[in-house]
Amino acid sequence: MIEVSHLTKRYGGHTAVSNLSFTIEKGQIYGFLGPNGAGKSTTMNIMTGCLAASEGEVRIDGHDIFEEPQQAKRLIGYLPEQPPLYLDRTPREYLTFVGRAKGIKDKALPEQIGRVMEVTQIIDVADRLIKHLSKGYRQRVGIAQALLGDPEVVILDEPTVGLDPKQIIEIRSLIQSLGQKHTVILSSHILSEVQAVCQTILIISKGHLVACDTPENLERLFSGSAAVDLTVEAGEAQTREILAPLDHIRSVDVRPEGTDRCQVTLETDGDEEVCRAVFFAFSRAGRAILRMTDAKASLEDIFIELTSGEAADAPAEAGSEDDGEEVDEP
After folding, report:
1. Structure confidence by residue, pLDDT tens digits, 141-182
2. How far is it, in rounded angstroms, from Cα 210 to Cα 218?
3. Of the N and C termini of the chain, which has fewer Cβ atoms inside 10 Å?
């Protein structure tokens, strides 16, 4: 669907994106992660034709974004981190303007506007000035303009930034529904959000792609060692005796609590059968496991490991400012 090949962007002596290559397959939700200044927004702006590249190419369904911009851009809907809203217009007026700018014919435009307003749930505020809408509703209007023209690819740059928890949940649900009909690329600093919504994660660091895989595969790749915490009804000596024959355990830390209860931490090699083996070992010994927690590498752990040393000295990316009176929380 999207092919990014050897993409490079320089600003004078600074290289924001360096020899970046990846492929976006049709019909998935992709998470695009990286610290501030890593090159995420620059890459998205190039992919959507808003910014020229120093080197490399981007193809959208076979169309070069630089050589065939009209054909390529028809396939993309884009919500920048700062939605390009006209605050003195109503959502209906604004979407009419955007639809005409996208070349949607006047006969088809009312139906399309009605459809995207229904999908983003902004029909109730369609005729109110955008400057009087809440941040959550403004984000919905921004997503609605990205959906006009029924693009195959929807690119969302920090769509939940500045929203309260209720609004974040609602926008997250909207993104999941969009993934049923569109290919979605989502940039976010909320790692739990990316893990919950996205099927594939791309991590960029210092302008380079450092990971591209499913959340599950990334966890497996970075779980070279894992921890299992136990609370068991057994003394220290018996606990060590039960665990001694088991494979895939690198170390055992036993902390007695009285004579017949222990807290135990096992460092393992990440093998998924460890917990099963531990359970049956204590069962055969007639001893109860009161609690067992398998701690694997989280997406946050993976992100920090792959981008370590960058976030502290990277320049901050532009944030979004909210102005105007907020009413009508969605």
Report:
1. 999 999 999 999 999 998 887 778 888 888 888 889 988 889
2. 11
3. N
